[in-house]
Amino acid sequence: MIKNLLIIFCCLFSGDLISFLLKIPIPGNVIGMVLLVLALQFKWVKLEDVKPAADILVKNLAFLFVPPGVGMILYFDLIAEELIPISVSLLVSSLIMLAVVGLVQQKLEKKGA
Amino acid sequence: MITFAVFFLSQKLYSRFKFFFFNPVLVTISTLILFLKLSEIPYQEYFEGGKMISFFLGPSVVALGVPLYLQLEEIKKRGKSILLSLVLGSVLGIVSVVGIASLLGASKKVIFSLAPKAVTTPIAMGITEKLGGILPLTAALVITTGILGAVLGPSFLRLLKIKSPIAFGLAMGAASHGIGTARAAEEGELQGAISGLALCLNGIITAILMPFVMDWMSFLGFF
């Protein structure tokens, strides 16, 4: 388990370092994820050396955003003030995304792509 | 101390409310907010305890690399169509949420917090931090988006005559990340797997495209 976590944190810190040094506007954690995929693909890291810890982390992913979610308590006034732009944009944009991704994918599949 | 109480509470609530309308995250957050309001504990004090949990956000995103690696073959097979759908969806998603919010008079800080709304929370947090939005607000908006998609998505997709299971899963995962993926998995194994893949890829694609899309929109005078 310690080895698992060490590998994951190594990817995370390398990702953070790359994001910081190259000043690319991609979060370090995303770069870390890509680094992990590359490491697995090129067999630098064995799957069984990361999978147990990764499974636990991914399974509990939802709970990790409880504390920051509770933080909205500090922004109740702001949310109330801009309730209309926030709710309309979220709703319409979500429907647009569902429609675009679903329809484009289905069309392309029919063409055999 | 509070950390453990919160975690225990979360798990208890999760096993109690499996029904997706009572989304465990939503229930836990609402309960905790109510608790903090009633007990008059300031958020800062609670967050000291919550720090340990938030600390794991970074490694959890990295850990998403494992399911992504495991599905690499499936991605390669349908690679082109999946990539094209997700890139189009991601760009139009950002443009529509930012455009509508801006036209309806949202402030800059709120617009920056809304922009990554369709992306899984830990990645969305990273994106918002880079843009200069408000982190807890983003978390709240991302969760709201997830619940919207999980509740409305399936009937909306049926209305559009989406019959392909891959298209269904991809749309759910792209538009409403983890919460949508949980809902998509109820439809079938393939829908769930593809939705998980979509949430991973959409996170990466959105993180990469966000600065460029925001630059264009800023150039066009949206904010």
Query: Which stretches of chain B are poorly predicted, pLDDT < 50 over at least 5 residues?
Result: none
CA radius of gyration of chain B: 18 Å
SSE order of chain B, as H and E? HHHHHHHHHHHH
Q: Rough shape of chain A?
A: extended
Summarize the largest interface: chains and residue counts. Answer: A-B, 73 and 112 residues
Task: State Rg of chain A.
Answer: 20 Å
Beta-sheet strand percentage of chain A?
A: under 5%
Amino-to-carboxy terminus distance of chain B: 43 Å
Report on the architecture of this protein.
- The complex is a heterodimer of chains A (113) and B (223).
- Chain A is 76% helix and 0% strand.
- Chain A has 113 residues and is an all-alpha fold.
- Chain A is extended.
- The mean pLDDT of chain A is 89.
- Chain B has 223 residues and is mainly alpha-helical.
- In chain B, helix 1 packs across helix 2 (24-39), helix 7 (79-103) runs antiparallel to helix 8 and helix 10 (135-159) crosses helix 11 (165-187).
- Chain B is globular and about 50 Å long.
- The mean pLDDT of chain B is 85.
- Classes of the chains: A mainly alpha (113), B mainly alpha (223).
Q: Which labels suit this protein?
A:
heterodimer; A: 113 residues; mainly alpha; 2 domains; B: mainly alpha; 12 helices; globular
Question: What is this entry, summarized?
Answer:
Chain A is mostly helical and 113 residues long.
Topology at a glance:
The complex is a heterodimer of chains A (113) and B (223).
Chain A: H1 2-21, H2 28-41, H3 51-59, H4 61-64, H5 66-70, H6 76-81, H7 83-110
Chain B: H1 2-16, H2 24-39, H3 43-55, H4 57-63, H5 65-70, H6 72-77, H7 79-103, H8 108-114, H9 121-131, H10 135-159, H11 165-187, H12 189-219
